[in-house]
Amino acid sequence: MYSRPSAPKTLGGVCRDVFDLYLHAPNSCWPLALMSAAVVAATFALSPLQEWLLNLSAAATTDLSAMSELRPSHVTNDLIAALTRSPAFWVTTVMSTVSLSILFVAMLVRMTDSVDPRKRTTDVILHALRLTPKFLLATAIYSLATSIGLLLLIVPGLIWMISLLLSAAAIVAENAGVFASFQRSRVLVKGAWWHVSGVVAVVTTPAFLAFLFTQTIASSVVAGFGGAPIAAIELNWLLATFLLMPLHASMLVVLYYDLKARNPAAG
Asked: What is the rounded end-to-end Cα distance, in angstroms, of the chain?
C-alpha cells in the first residue's frame, strides 16, 4: 500500500509507488474511471466523427477502385473540413473535454485526500467541479506552451513539459491558482528534471505498449464477431480511458509528494 514518503526515493522506488498507488487506488477512483469510459462511449455515439468514419468504411467496401484513388491527405482534409463545420462535433467535444476533466480532477482529489476519505463519490465530484475551471485553463496554457516549444526548437518544449507537469497536482492539493500552480511545479521540479523525466518515461512506455497491445486484441475480438473496424478503435479507447486515466493521476500524485520530500525547502 502506498504511503507518502518522508525522504527522497530512487527512480525505481518512485515508479514502484506509482504502480502501487494505481493498483491500490481508493475504491472511488475506479467508479470515476468507469464514468470516464462512459463519457468516451457517449462521445463516440453522439459525435459526427463516427458517422463520417462509418460512411468512409462503407465506401471502401462498395467502391474499392474509388477508394484506391483517395489519398490520405484528401481524407484528412475532408474530415477536418466536415467536422469543423459541424456544430454537433464542437458540442460533443466541449462536453467530453469538460466531463473528463472533472472526473480526472476528482481522481486527483481522492488520491491526495483533499477531501475527507469517507466522503461519497458525488461529494468528491462536486469538490472537483470547483477546481475544474482552473485545471482547464492551466491545461490549455500548458498544452499551448509545450506545443509551441516543441514546434520551434523541441528542447524548450521538452523542458516546459516536465517543469510544468505538476501544475494539476498543485491546483488540487494546494488549491493553487493557475499561474501559481506553474510556479509551484517549477519549484518542485527544479534540480530533479531528469529524475521526473525518468519516472515519466518508465511509467508511460509500458502504458503506450499496453495501448498498442489492447488495440490488437480489440481488433481481433471485433473482427471475430464480424464488427466494423471503427468498433475496435472505440473499444480500445474505452479500455485506455478506464485503465490509463487512474495511472496518469497516480503518477502526478506520487511525483508531487516525492518532490516535496526531495526538496523540504519547497514546503
From this structure: 24
